[in-house]
Each structure stands twice: as structure tokens, then as C-alpha cells.
Specification:
homodimer; alpha/beta; Rossmann fold; 28% helix; globular
Chain lengths: 276, 276
């Protein structure tokens, strides 16, 4: 018998994956959680029926949410990841030698627990001495820690359920305040094919709050449309002006110095989404 | 009742689309053909169970297979498209004012017929005075027309069935010979996530035959993994040296002058596929 898992990414389209094993299915206080073994992408974490990460393509998303801001900042020492309970963004962030402390604030402790047990390839950095894991509300945490971080990454689920508040303008204001005076913020902002309104709204908010706002994209096969966006807000450093000759020695599978700038070159229809 | 069409892109993964109407299903001498209405992407052409093009995302593929070589060449007058019976690549090619003649060589006349009837948005250029449609074997045609074309685009189906020969080294030699002395050739070469061996093989062949070989990529939601590659072989012009300030006035939704170079900046894992 063949078992297939289907995520209906919209009401009209889905991705369907052959699965060979179910490691975990259950419910936390916040969401449904499943950890399954797929033929195409290996182990896959699913929250509320939406693919969050897979062992075989997670490198794209985690490298791009992390190295783009980390390499834009000249000396990122204190890092905050909101969401991202699988640990992938933190794993990439602490590859940077400048990092002294990285805090992961995940609202759902069960996600961290499942990732630690079943996804060691992704969660391996969560036991690092530099990493502190806090199971609490990221919105509250950002409000309570002002002028503290060099880089903040918002590695959220889709803008429904527990993550809805992470796409609000007030939240971005809190992020601005929890960054140091030259801090940088990045959030995952969904697909330019399927979520144009969301991207426009988030980009407009970030653009109003931060001196520098930029959108960049990458290809993630297991996310809706396979094409994904990130919105960056920066107080001082412009990623388009990064001296990429100084980016050196990062072990990566997707990100590289030339891509640091090329990922900001947007197709015409994406430029139009954020055009004023 | 809901009807869904599923393409199993590999043995382990598929894309599934809600459909509201079936305009055509049938068999030509070469393949199964279906033309369906999907909720997410509008009308969709399916050949042998594989999505070829949809009204809502076709612009990405057709613009990128066409404008990248067309803008790399300084004066493309005679154009050949092999495959591409839907007419999308030709439609983009004749946007360039330098074009005097564009020949479409499609082995399956039924595809042209269906596209003309059901996909006028894509096939509209096939009735242009500059366009000649030949229903014949592209391999044979390339062999018989030496030193003729400025740009050749191979807009094929996947490397099984009628298109298998379009991924052979001997075919690329014929293409080289049917190009003029400063001609450029581009072929669609599948997904960097799913078809690494094919990309490596094609790129190696093209790199041996042409002085300049380049790989570039774009995001096509309805193709396997959503991430797609094109291999370019050029006798004289290097796309990385194109004077993009001269690219002007093209009406596009994906391609633009900055992307002309950015699309050649490859993620690390893609660079590794074609590394010697």
C-alpha cells in the first residue's frame, strides 16, 4: 500500500508526497504537528498541515534567511530568531564567528522537542553553548528586550494561527526597537506568486519603519509555488552595498557571495508588488 | 464534485490542481494531449501527463528561454524554435524588432492545433507574417539548414518520448552547424533539484561544442520543484558581458535587464552540478 501526504497550498493547488514512515503525529497547545519520512525530500516537519521544513531542501531557506542579513551586518554578535523551532536558522547563524550569543524564541516547545528528537541534522545547533532556547511568545520577548540584538530573523509559519501576529506592523516596530542602532531584521514573507497582498503589506510596513527596506527571493521546492520571499529592514547597512569580497569560508549549499546581491534582483512582477 | 489533476513529477512527489473544465483530451501520433482549466493557473496544457504550460505562469518560462539569448545577440534576425508548439517562445522572440523571420519546428501538429484553438494568449504570434510553422522533426530540420540562424531555442518536453533525441550530443552538434558564426543556442534543461545528471550531461556536451557555455535558472511554479534551468551555448557573445543598458522597451512580466545577468548567478549546489 502506498501512503501519500498532500498539502493543499491554496484551495486550488497542492503538493503530494509519497511517505514511508510516520515518526510523530500529535497536537501541541498551538498546532497539529507531524513528522513524516518522504521519498523525495527525506524527513519532513508539518505544522497545521503545512510543510515547514524537509531534510533535503531546508538548506535553501535556512541559509537564505540567515546569511543574507548576517553578511550584510559587519559584526553580528547578538542574534535573535523568533519562531524557527527546528533550529535551522540558528544553525546557519552560528557559523559566523562573530556571534557571541544566539537566542531562539519559539512559542511552541513541542516543535523544539520534536526537532531535537527527529531532526538532528537541522536542530544540532540548539545544544551549542552560544545558543539559548526560550519557549515563549516572540512578540512579548521583542517588546521586553530593547536595543539588544544585531540581527533578528523572524522564521515564522504562515500568517494564520499562532504566527498571525508576526506579520503585524506593531510587531515590526517592536523588532526595530529591540535591534541595536545598526541592526538588521529579516522575515520570511511567503510566495510572490500566491501571496502578493501579504508581501505588499509587510514590505510597506517595514519600509515605513526602517531606513532601508529590501525584498529578496529564493527557490524552495516544498513551499507553495517553489518560489519564496524574504523582507529585510535595516537601520544602517544596505545589502546591495555589502563588500562581498569579505564573505569567506562559509560552508553552504545555496548561499554564496555573488548570490548575496543577485537574490535582490527581482523579476518584473515581483518588483511591481512592492512598487510605490 | 471536485475534480483534481495530479502530475506525479517523480515517483515520490506530485503537483495536484483543482480543475473546472476539460477542453480537450486525446492522443496524437506522438503523445497524449490534454487541455484543462485549473483554478490556480488557468488553462493548462498537459502532454503525456506532464504540465507543459499554463496561462498564468507561462510568462516566466517563455520570457526566459527567449529574451536571455535574444538580448545576448546584438542583432538577432533569423530565429528557430524547436518544439514549443504552443507558440510562447516565438511570441516573445518576435517582440524584438530586429527579427525578420522566426521558424517554429514542432514534430506534433496536434499541439499547434490545440494551442491555436484553446490558448490564443500563448499561440497568438503563430499567425504573424514573420513566423513560419513547420510540422516536422527538429533534429532533421537542424541537420538540413546549416549556417542559417542567429538564435536557436530548444523548447522541448522532458527527455522521454518524442523529445529524447533533443538532449543528445549529436543534436547539439547539428544546432551548432545550423547557427551562423555568431549564433546562440538555448535549451530548457529541467530542474536543478530533480535532474542533476541530465543538467551535467547536457552542459558538458554544450561546453565541448560551443566556445561559451552558460547555465541560468528561473522559478516556474508548475514545473517539478518550481526551479528550472536553461543551458546556453554561444559562438561569440557572452551573456555575462551583454551591455544591458541597450535592452529597452521589452514588455515583460519576469525578464528585465538586471535579471539578464542575475539569472546566471547560481546557488552553490547548482554551480557544483556543472563544475568540471
Amino acid at each position: 500500500m502506498e501512503l501519500w501526504y498532500t498539502e493543499y497550498q491554496t484551495r486550488e493547488i497542492g503538493i503530494t508526497c509519497k511517505i514511508s514512515k510516520t515518526y510523530y503525529t500529535g497536537k501541541s497547545k498551538f498546532q497539529d504537528i507531524a513528522l513524516i519520512e518522504t521519498g523525495q525530500f527525506g524527513k519532513m516537519l508539518v505544522l497545521d498541515g503545512m510543510v515547514q521544513t524537509t531534510v533535503k531542501d531546508e538548506f535553501v531557506y535556512h541559509e537564505m534567511i540567515s546569511h543574507v542579513p548576517m553578511c550584510t551586518h559587519t559584526n553580528p554578535e547578538k542574534i535573535l530568531v523568533i519562531g524557527g523551532g527546528d533550529g535551522g536558522a540558528i544553525r546557519e547563524a552560528i557559523k559566523h564567528k562573530s556571534v557571541k550569543k544566539a537566542v531562539l524564541v519559539e512559542i511552541d516547545g513541542k516543535v523544539v522537542e520534536i526537532a531535537k528528537k527527529h531532526l538532528p541534522e537541522i536542530s544540532c545547533a540548539l545544544d551549542s553553548e552560544k545558543v539559548e532556547v526560550k519557549v515563549t511568545d516572540g512578540i512579548k520577548y521583542a517588546k521586553e528586550n530593547k536595543n539588544t540584538f544585531d540581527v533578528v530573523m523572524v522564521d515564522s509559519t504562515d500568517p494564520v494561527g499562532p504566527a498571525a501576529g508576526l506579520f503585524d506592523k506593531d510587531f515590526y516596530k517592536s523588532i526595530y526597537e529591540c535591534l541595536k542602532e545598526d541592526g538588521i531584521f529579516v522575515a520570511q514573507t511567503e510566495s510572490p506568486f500566491f501571496h502578493k497582498d501579504l508581501i505588499k503589506r509587510v514590505f510597506d510596513s517595514v519600509d515605513r519603519i526602517f531606513p532601508i527596506a529590501r525584498l529578496y527571493t529564493c527557490s524552495v521546492p516544498t513551499y507553495p509555488s517553489g518560489y519564496w520571499s524574504f523582507t529585510m529592514g535595516s537601520k544602517k547597512y544596505d545589502p546591495l552595498l555589502t563588500d562581498i569580497s569579505k564573505i569567506d569560508g562559509l560552508q553552504t549549499k545555496y548561499y554564496n557571495p555573488k548570490l548575496h546581491k543577485a537574490c535582490f534582483v527581482l523579476p518584473e512582477f515581483v518588483k511591481n508588488i512592492i512598487k510605490k
